Amino acid sequence: MYRLNDEQQQIVATAAAVADRDLAPRAASVDRDAAFPADSIAALGASGLLGLTVAKTHGGLGQGPRTVAAVIDAVAQRCPSTAMVYLMHLCGVACYTAAPDKTAPLLEAAAAGRHISTLAFSEKGSRSHFWAPVSRASASGNGAVSINAQKSFVTSAGHADGYVVSTQSAGATQPLESSIYVVLKEDAGVAVSGPWRGLGLRGNASAPMTLSNVSVGADRALTADGKGLDMMLGVVLPLFQVGSAAVGIGIAEAAVNATIGHVTHTRFEQSNSSLADLPTLRAQIARMRIDTDRARAHLGAVLDSLESPGPATQLMVLEAKASGTETAVAVTDMAMRACGGAAFGGAHGIERLFRDARAPIVMAPTSEVAYEFIGRALCGLEVF
């Protein structure tokens, strides 16, 4: 459904092979131990996939959102935690790409598999309203600033090499006047300020972080002063929406396949029949298949609109995450019902997929916020 060319198909095939070999065998332990999937991310890096969207002039694969969606879909089918870490890395890299004169070494390191990026937008004070930071930079001369912020739910907290950080500009008069900087893990004042052990996606290390008097120079500014919102909405949001949808679709696909495996291989000894002989279960699987295919087709339409922008593009982008992630919730719920006690007891990883599916719907923008954005757009109102 992604309609990939030969080069894109080869990249996705490579990602699927890496995921089968290195990610899938670790997925259960990543979840059980709430362990950051460092080895899985390293395997993606060794295959050049951390540079998926980095320009070929910087050593990357030079791919766009269509390939991103297909690769993340493939990764999420094997390990959703790794898929989310990977998505946030690609979002950080997208911000680097918007300021290549300042970030060329970081882009080259990512392409070589030596640099993991992530976003640090959401804050304790503004919660899921990521576009409105409450922290404020303090000017310290020569374009440098000092950042003090309480960031919440930073994926890859303590493991990423580069953090794309939003904060109100020093002269801001309202929260939307933000600036975005890259903060490196070795910068003084950067600390993880709490543990992470969530219901789902337990390996993504989405912990709070504290930035205490972190000094960054003008060379670390990824946007003009006060223009952070432009990067959030124009650079990050489309990729994050597409990638989040792909994570959800990958989870749903894994649930479909696990359910089929269970009902076709589990038998009633007294009647010498399988669960697949029950028409109610076959109908459940059919609904799961249709819902997953529908969400993937919708994502394909979003990608088409991004590649050929028109009046509906903003609306399609706003719809993407809610469509893909809510489908994952519905499909994994059906999988739990179809597989019954086996799923409840943890068989086939279905219970893990059920939990993982619920994490993206509360990631900003949450489904409820997305519906509000979509409703405002449909009614001709300003979205932000």
UniProtKB/TrEMBL annotation:
SUPFAM superfamilies: Acyl-CoA dehydrogenase C-terminal domain-like (SSF47203), Acyl-CoA dehydrogenase NM domain-like (SSF56645). InterPro entries: Acyl-CoA_Oxase/DH_mid-dom (IPR006091), Acyl-CoA_Oxase/DH_mid-dom_sf (IPR046373), AcylCo_DH-like_C (IPR036250), AcylCo_DH/oxidase_C (IPR009075), AcylCoA_DH/ox_N (IPR013786), AcylCoA_DH/ox_N_sf (IPR037069), AcylCoA_DH/oxidase_NM_dom_sf (IPR009100), Mito_Isobutyryl-CoADH (IPR052547). GO terms for molecular function: flavin adenine dinucleotide binding; oxidoreductase activity, acting on the CH-CH group of donors. It holds the Pfam family Acyl-CoA_dh_1. It is an enzyme of class 1 (oxidoreductase). Its cofactor is FAD. Residues 5-93 form the Acyl-CoA dehydrogenase/oxidase N-terminal domain. Keywords: FAD, Flavoprotein, Oxidoreductase. Its EC number is 1.3.99.-. Residues 119-214 form the Acyl-CoA oxidase/dehydrogenase middle domain. Residues 227-378 form the Acyl-CoA dehydrogenase/oxidase C-terminal domain. PANTHER family: ISOBUTYRYL-COA DEHYDROGENASE, ISOBUTYRYL-COA DEHYDROGENASE, MITOCHONDRIAL. Belongs to the acyl-CoA dehydrogenase family. This is Acyl-CoA dehydrogenase. It comes from Luteitalea pratensis. The lineage of its organism: Bacteria, Pseudomonadati, Acidobacteriota, Vicinamibacteria, Vicinamibacterales.
